[in-house]
Amino acid sequence: MTDGALTVIRAGALTTVQDLGRYGHAHLGVPRSGALDLPTLRLVNRLVGNPEGAAVLETTLDGCAVRPRRAVTAVVAGAPCPVSVDGRPAPWGAPVHVPAGAVLDIGAAVSGVRGYVAFGGGIAVAPVLGSRSTDLLSGLGPAPLRVGTVLPLGRARGRAVPADAVPFPAPPAELVLRVRFGPRDDWFTDAALRTLVTRVYRVSSASNRIGLRTEGPPLERAVTGELPSEGLVTGAVQVPPDGLPVVFLADHPTTGGYPVVAVVRERDLAAAAQAPPGTPVRFSAAGR
């Protein structure tokens, strides 16, 4: 049951509804989806008094602005950014009271890429296959926000929790992604495997929720034949015909026909989600 809603005043470059994701449906061709930065999703929900899996807004680069129809408590975290309520500065990373009819504005990211906005009670859109997340690849869940979109709010049941400090584990000057080789590392030359873990790549501007694309030295294949489509996991480093590694993120396809040379450890993916275009990337070998 809901007891309010909010209206989108400014949608931003890409703002979507996200929660912990749609687990357990890969055999049906449905990816996990969910927030790219799961630690921050859990943090904003905890600060606003929600269960950790409540649905929030995930913004991209330039934030968004919304007007709730009832008074609500909100928390903005993730990529640091200016926050205001009806033009007055409000804290980032702490509970903010937003009166009914006031405009909560989440500004452009100062660093990082994605911001997370939790509201007391959560975003109460109808779940699809157990999740309220927007999946850009399959089209499941609510569509990305547009000006005028109305989103229902759930009833707040917990109390907001102020924090003395909110950590933002921003990508370092060089993003290090720890990988385990396989399952198709034998499709690449030994020189290509050395290149992957010794050369510097950069985050491509073509990156999105499906995958972090890279720019840098291409990887040479030892096997040039076709690969039957096979299952993919989040963090898989797939190498398309141009030889440039792609790190699959939450909206990745569940199967693919290009070889996967390695898999990124899941704990490193939140930092990958916050890496802006041009960020240097190093793949660090963690074994086979």
List the helices and strands and how they pair.
Layout (H helix, E strand, L loop, with lengths): L1 E9 L5 E3 L19 H11 L7 E5 L3 E5 L3 E7 L4 E3 L2 E3 L5 E3 L5 E3 L7 E6 L30 E5 L20 E7 L8 H9 L2 E3 L7 E5 L14 E2 L4 E3 L7 E3 L6 E2 L3 E5 L4 H5 L6 E6 L3
Parallel strand pairs: 12-20
Antiparallel strand pairs: 1-4, 1-11, 2-3, 3-10, 4-9, 5-8, 5-10, 6-7, 6-9, 12-19, 13-14, 13-20, 14-17, 15-18, 16-17, 16-19
Number of strands: 20
Poorly predicted regions are none
Q: What percentage of the residues does DSSP assign to strands (E)?
A: 25-35%
SS element count, helices: 3
For the largest sheet, list the strands in their spatial order.
12-19-16-17-14-13-20
Roughly how many Å apart are the termini?
49 Å
Report the mean per-residue pLDDT as an integer: 92
Listing every helix as H and every strand as E from the N terminus to the C terminus, the arrangement reads EEHEEEEEEEEEEHEEEEEEEHE
Categorize the overall geometry. Answer: elongated
Which value, in Å, is the CA radius of gyration? 20 Å
Helix content: under 10%
Structural class: mainly beta
How is the biggest beta sheet arranged? 7 strands, mixed, barrel
